Amino acid sequence: MTLCVALLSACTDARDPAERDVARGTVSFREGAQSRPADSVAQRRGIEAVLSEHIARYPAMQIQDLYKLVHQGAYGSEHAMPGYQQALDWLSSELVRLAAEGPGAGDLPGPLVEALAPDGEIVRVHLRPYLKNGWDPGPLLEAFVRTAAEYPRSPDRLRAFAEAAEGMARDGRLPFAADSVTAFFARLEEDGFPAMHHSERYQEQYQPAYRVIAGAFLPESLRVWSARADGRPRGR
Length: 236
Known about the structure:
The protein contains ten helices and three strands; from the N terminus they run H-H-H-H-H-E-E-H-H-H-H-H-E. By secondary structure, it is mainly alpha-helical.
């Protein structure tokens, strides 16, 4: 509950984050920054590394969860943020729920920071370890809102992720049939690459609780953490 009070105190300035950024002189993705090219060999290997890390950490992943991973890596968190106040209320209630969890919840997989794209350009910040460290959730909320507003959506990047996943499936490096992966992504591309929830099996097995944040917007408390999927501090 203490963390939720801190969150509410840290977010009394309810202006749109973009307005505060202008006042601060900070640079946003949409002030000229573009998504990195996704067709290089190095980028392909980086994508494969991200997918491999998630498959190893979450063996109960379904194709639906693979798509969600790819979607977040290419589109960020825009679909999950209906408005600043809603994001504040959502995080507050989730922190209260997590604080009330039993000790067994600490054994769930998921590092503090988990890469969704090569070089940690976009990451998941898991709330359980964040809560355990006692950090102020205010900067995390602001980073989440900024990401939703500014991270550039890239259908081309999503296609590059999908192609990498299909290639890995053909090579037997994913626990899914290649034809199933191809058909699943093709159907969703026809629908405009919509957002999707985690599968029921994934939710039951891993109880995910995280926020998707651009690496450039990570709160200062997380800057010492690696952008790699293992989430360990740099240099270790």
